[in-house]
């Protein structure tokens, strides 16, 4: 059985290594990095199917990293998930703008992270595009924000 490839990026080494170990035990192949530039290099060769990115990192934040990783794989970008202490609406908007599919607020339950990544990888996205044309463009996170709040009005930039 092929293991799904997950890239974990967090400047907090303990957090990154702990999540890495949990995902390995859960059956994923994992590459772990501690900053944006090394994550970009790793992504180019590792070709992750999913990325779990911290947001608040020195040098390159998770939003910029997500955009650049999406740029590496324009035809089939990996599932992108944030794992951050930020859970307010403004940060969720920024996550949508950066192209994230999932948001986990620290401390996230490891079982939830594993289940949501598996579900997203199985479906191709967390919520597969409906058979009929949707009036809700964007990622699963974008559509979820739209459903929950009804406040999202600007389209997501590709």
UniProtKB/TrEMBL annotation:
<keyword id="KW-0805">Transcription regulation</keyword>
<keyword id="KW-0597">Phosphoprotein</keyword>
<keyword id="KW-0804">Transcription</keyword>
<keyword id="KW-0902">Two-component regulatory system</keyword>
<protein>
    <submittedName>
        <fullName>Response regulator</fullName>
    </submittedName>
</protein>
<feature type="modified residue" description="4-aspartylphosphate">
    <location>
        <position position="54"/>
    </location>
</feature>
<feature type="domain" description="Response regulatory">
    <location>
        <begin position="5"/>
        <end position="121"/>
    </location>
</feature>
<dbReference type="Pfam" id="PF00072">
    <property type="entry name" value="Response_reg"/>
</dbReference>
<dbReference type="InterPro" id="IPR039420">
    <property type="entry name" value="WalR-like"/>
</dbReference>
<dbReference type="InterPro" id="IPR011006">
    <property type="entry name" value="CheY-like_superfamily"/>
</dbReference>
<dbReference type="InterPro" id="IPR001789">
    <property type="entry name" value="Sig_transdc_resp-reg_receiver"/>
</dbReference>
<keyword id="KW-0238">DNA-binding</keyword>
């Amino acid at each position: 059985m092929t293991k799904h490839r997950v890239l974990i990026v967090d400047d907090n080494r303990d957090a990154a290594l702990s999540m890495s170990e949990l995902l390995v035990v859960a059956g994923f192949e994992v590459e772990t990095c501690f900053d944006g530039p090394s994550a970009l290099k790793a992504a180019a060769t590792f070709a992750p199917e999913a990325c779990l990115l911290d947001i608040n990192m020195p040098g390159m934040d998770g939003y910029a990293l997500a955009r650049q990783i999406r740029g590496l794989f324009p035809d089939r970008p990996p599932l992108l998930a944030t794992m951050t202490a930020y859970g307010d609406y403004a940060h969720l908007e920024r996550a949508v703008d950066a192209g994230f599919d999932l948001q986990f607020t620290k401390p996230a339950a490891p079982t939830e992270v594993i289940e949501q990544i598996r579900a997203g990888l199985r479906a191709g996205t967390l919520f597969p595009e409906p058979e009929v044309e949707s009036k809700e463009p964007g990622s699963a996170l974008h559509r979820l924000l739209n459903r929950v709040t009804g406040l999202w009005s600007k389209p997501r930039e590709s």
